[in-house]
Amino acid sequence: MDLVGIRIELPTNTPILLLREHGGERYLPIWINTPEATAIALAHDGIKPERPLTHDLLTTLIEELGATVDEVVVTELRGGTFYADLRLSVGDDVHTISSRPSDAVAIAVRTDAPLFASRELLDEAGVHIRDQEDEDEIERFREFLDRVDPGDFESGDFEHGPGTDS
């Protein structure tokens, strides 16, 4: 998964963690709390606060204990709540720690750990988001519909339809 960033859902002003399927077309929107959204956005943008935030502290703790963050996996959606696993290695030992996706991603973005989501989760909760080109084409078609008269179709006299160069 690729971290697209934090978006704000209007009109509720609720932060959404937006992940995109790597090399794919599906997005995974996860509604999160403001403190975690801030922590993710700051790290994603390369901004280091003067004093460490909670996720900075956790990252330092992980590193000082000799562990590495191997990956973050958003595993499931159960009862409207997303779940994730934070996978750590200490020497030859691998530990899987259950986590909120927002906390796991906040740590992953600080440690450059890869993000994953199960295929089943993407099938269940993944969404397709239209890109700007699609939106522009829809807007041009709407403008065409606003200008056209139904009688133009009967006579064949219309010239400036969608997809033309005029």
CATH class of the largest domain: Alpha Beta
**Helical fraction:** 25-40%
User: What is the CATH topology descriptor of the largest domain?
Assistant: Bifunctional nuclease domain
How many DSSP E strands? 8
Number of domains: 2
The number of helical elements comes to 6
Identify the overall geometry. Answer: globular
- Strand-residue proportion: 25-35%
Assembly type of the chains comes to single chain
The helix-and-strand class reads: alpha+beta
Protein name: BFN domain-containing protein
Domain BFN: 1-129
Pfam families: BFN_dom
InterPro entries: BFN_sf (IPR036104), Bi_nuclease_dom (IPR003729)
TL;DR of this structure?
This protein has 6 helices and 8 strands, in the order βββααβββαβαβαα. With 166 residues, the protein is an alpha+beta fold.
Describe it.
The protein has 166 residues and is of the alpha+beta class. It has two domains: 2-128, Bifunctional nuclease domain (Roll); 130-166, no CATH class. 37% of the residues lie in helices and 33% in strands. It is built from six helices and eight strands. The protein has helices spanning 34-44, 54-64, 101-111, 119-125, 132-147, 150-155; strands spanning 2-9, 14-20, 26-31, 67-78, 81-90, 93-99, 115-117, 127-128. It has a four-stranded antiparallel β-sheet with strand order 1-2-3-8, covered by helices on one side. The chain is globular and about 65 Å long. The two termini are 41 Å apart. Residues 155-166 have low confidence and may be disordered.
